[in-house]
Amino acid sequence: MKKVVSIILAVFSLVNCFSQSSEEYCKKAVDKERILDHKGAIAEYNRAIQLSTSNVNAYYGRALCKDKLQDYKGAMTDYNKAIQLDPKNAQVYYNRGVCMDKQKDYKGAIEDLTKAIELNPKYEDAYYNRGICRDELHDYLAAIEDYNKVIKLDRKNELAYYNRGICKAKMEDNRGAIADLDIAISLNPKYVQAYFIRGLCKNALGYRDSGCMDFSKAGDLGHDDAFSMIKKYCN
C-alpha cells in the first residue's frame, strides 16, 4: 500500500513540476523580450507550451513576439488559441484586433476591438484603434465617436484630438478640424504634422497668412512637404 501511495505522490510531484517549469520558461521568455530578443523568447514559449498545452500566457506571449517579428499569420494562430483558452481576456482581443489592422483587415479588427471594449468599457486604446480602423473604412462619424470616447477618458490625449481633427477635415469641417488641431498643438507644441494639416485647413478657409505661418512652423520642425506648400500658397 505504501508503494502505491509513493507512486501516486511521485506522479503528482512530476505533474506539478511540469506546471511550474512551464511558467519558468514563460519568465525566461519575458526576460528575453525585455532585451528585444523576440526569437529567443519564442523558443522559451515553445518549451513552455510543450510542457503545458493549456498555458494561455505562453500562447499570448508567443503571439506578441510573432507579431513584433511581423509573422502575422503565426501570431493570429496563437491569439486564437489564447482566446480559446481564455475567452474573457480583453487584452488578447485587443492585440488580435491590432494584428488584423496591420493586415488591413479593418472589419475584423473592429469586431475584436469592439469585443475588447465590451469586456472593458474603459479600454482607451481599444477605442482609439477602432477609431483608426473606422477612419480607414471612411466611416468618419463613427471614428469621431470613438475619438470622443478616448478624449472623455483622457483629456490630454493629443493623438485623439489630432485624429478627430483629421476626420473632420476629411468631412470638410475645416473649422472643427482647426479647433481640434489647436488643442493637439497646445498639448504638444512640436506636433509637426498637426501644424501642417492646420495650415491646409486654414488655407482652405482663405486664412492664407495664418496658414502660411503653420507651414513655416511645420517646415522648421522638419516636415518634408511644408516648404513646397509655402511656394504654392504663400509666395
Question: Any overview of this molecule?
Answer:
- The chain is built from 13 helices and no strands.
- The protein is mainly α.
- Among the domains are: 18-72, Serine Threonine Protein Phosphatase 5, Tetratricopeptide repeat, CATH 1.25.40; 88-154, Tetratricopeptide repeat domain (Serine Threonine Protein Phosphatase 5, Tetratricopeptide repeat, Alpha Horseshoe).
- α1 packs parallel to α3, α5 runs antiparallel to α6 and α7 runs antiparallel to α8 (140-153).
- The longest helix is centred in the first third of the chain and has 33 residues, at 2-34.
- The chain is elongated and about 70 Å long.
- The protein starts with a helix and ends with a helix.
- Estimate the global geometry from the Cα principal axes: elongated
Give the class-level CATH name of the domain at 88-154: Mainly Alpha
Along the chain, the helix and strand elements come as HHHHHHHHHHHHH
CATH H-level name of the domain at 88-154... which superfamily? Tetratricopeptide repeat domain
Mind telling me which CATH architecture of the domain at 88-154 this is?
Alpha Horseshoe
Oligomer: single chain
Number of helices: 13
Number of strands: 0
Distance between the termini: 99 Å
Computed CA radius of gyration, to the nearest angstrom:
25 Å
Strand content is under 5%
Structural class: mainly alpha
Mean pLDDT rating: 92
The low-confidence parts are 1-19
Q: Main beta sheet, described?
A: none
CATH topology of the domain at 88-154: Serine Threonine Protein Phosphatase 5, Tetratricopeptide repeat
